[in-house]
Amino acid sequence: MTSQTNSQDQAQGLPTISLQGLFDQDPAETSKLLDASKQYGFFYLDFRTISESETVLGLIDQIYRFEEQLFSLPQDHLMNYDVDEIGYMKLNGYKPKGRNFGQLANGRDGFESYAIPKDGVLDLGDKPYPRPPIFDKNMPMLKAYMRAMQEATLSIHRALSQVLGLQAGEKFEEFHRADRTSPCILRLLKYHAQPAQERGASQTPHTDLGSLTILFTKQPGLQVLMKGSDKWEDVEPRAGHAIVNIGDGMSLLTNGLLHSSIHRVAPPHDQAMVTRYSFAFLQRSEEHTPLVGLKSPLIQATSGSSEVVTSGEWLHQKFSMLRAKTHNTEKQWVLTGHREISTQAH
Fold first, then answer.
1. Can you name the residues that pair with 225 across neighbouring β-strands?
2. Which residues lie below 8 Å from residue 255, measured CB to CB, with a gap of 6+?
3. Which of 120, 169, 267, 290 is at a distance of 20 to 30 A from 275, taking alpha carbons?
């Protein structure tokens, strides 16, 4: 049985993928991406390698400042934009701390979040986009950031489609079109501090419901269960890098070939949980995409008896398990991708 210290060392072995290498369609980088997506479901994505690195890294710094300003607003003001009231898909608005099922002493979560819809920011579709006034003066920055993340995810999809031999009509990028409406969001997160003697996970163990998550943070706390392991391993942040993970959507489209890893946010080993800011671009396939295995020599054929859900349906199921008032312990597999795990923080 490995020690916690050794587990932390193993997590630092996550592969690093060059974003410029993906832009250039470098075969070696593409092969490394596939291996990382199958074995770990997590990898670092190096944004320092791209020609527009100064611009994109500047946008990342601006998002950090923006979210601190946003979460410093009075909560009663933010509650005017309650994410659960604006729409059932929960794509726009504020979630207060404690609304979700969690592992703190009160059985709830320990973070606030604000969902920013891709469609609203990029003026796609005809749905209204209510938002606090602070968003309007920051809209050019948010548009530029959304477009940069779409370019990054497109490079990942194209690379994986190519290496898996996917044909026209079944390529990942065809289900994730930047100019079409979809349930993609940018989620801003503020995790509240915990004293060292409290070891509860601020965010319950889960797999991500979408296709790809591109996370930026400057602080520790993210922990992952590697494939075949029962030990939580810390994933440390790296300057100029995103932490990327494969979500349920990509795993379902490949019948489990690409791995959606269970992860959580919890106090680092022997440390108190400090106030932690992060933000994640959550890419999801277009709402009516059937999440069924695609045709590839590397993807196991789909059983004819398997139930097929769409991207939108899976999103709704997942959120019903996250919210404390609708959480169903008999459907824990929805949160954790069919894996049984210990609920104890250690």
1. 232, 262
2. 293, 299, 300, 301, 302
3. 120
Which tens digit of pLDDT belongs to each residue from 140-195?
999 999 999 999 999 999 999 999 999 999 999 999 999 999 999 999 999 999 88
pLDDT digits (tens, 9 = 90+) for 83-119: 999 998 899 999 999 998 888 888 899 999 999 999 9
Q: How high does pLDDT run on average in the chain?
A: 90
Q: Is the pTM of this model over 0.90?
A: yes
Q: Which helix (H) or strand (E) holds 94?
A: strand 93-95
Map tokens 């989620």 to a residue: 187
Query: Tokens standing for 138?
Result: 């920051």
Q: In what order do the strands lie in the sheet with 276-283?
A: 16-18, 42-46, 241-246, 212-217, 276-283, 185-191, 111-117, 93-95
pLDDT in the model for residue 340: 47
Tokens 């490949």 -> residue: 254
Please name the residue that has the structure tokens 């930047």.
Answer: 178
Within 8 A by CB and 6+ apart from 230, the residues are: 341, 342
Q: Which two tokens stand for residue 280?
A: 């994640």
